[in-house]
């Protein structure tokens, strides 16, 4: 991770230190994307120097805090075992999902596999939400998403994870003690989740 430390990408440097360059895979990928990493670092330094003299402190802080997540970076962070512990979610500032992956090994691997296919959507959404969060103090991030609900439904929905996510806590507790109402309720929920999500968002 010495190149990341040099480019002031401290988080990546630490991650490379403890994973030996993501087991060599991330290191090899960096060999191809090094020019873009250097260009990005130099551009960021130039812009930050300009806004330090031109913008008030609050605007400067918002600019510095809002860093766009690159799709390639998200895929590198999803390389096992880091991805199974939610590394890509931490990168996108999805702390709750990161913690969930940390304690469930990527939803027993199923959530991690799903993320490999929906990564472009996750990155786009994360960048949009982080930008809105910086621009508006009224930004509401409590809304529920259909694809999140389905990722939680399989395989851990039998313990009610999707119900907890949708704010249906009594149903979540019921599923824990009945294993998804003996599996039948869990199967039925596959068809009912869209209506659950719609109902949950109306309450927000």
TrEMBL record:
TM2 domain span: 149-190
Keyword Chaperone among UniProt keywords: no
Keywords from the named record: Membrane, Transmembrane, Transmembrane helix
Domain of life: Eukaryota
Transmembrane stretches, start-end: 12-29, 74-92, 98-123, 144-165, 171-188
Principal location class: membrane
Protein location: Membrane
Membrane topology per record: Multi-pass membrane protein
Any Pfam family: TM2
GO cellular component terms attached to this protein's record: membrane
Family the UniProt entry places it in: Belongs to the TM2 family.
PANTHER family: BETA-AMYLOID BINDING PROTEIN-RELATED, TM2 DOMAIN-CONTAINING PROTEIN DDB_G0277895-RELATED
Protein name: TM2 domain-containing protein
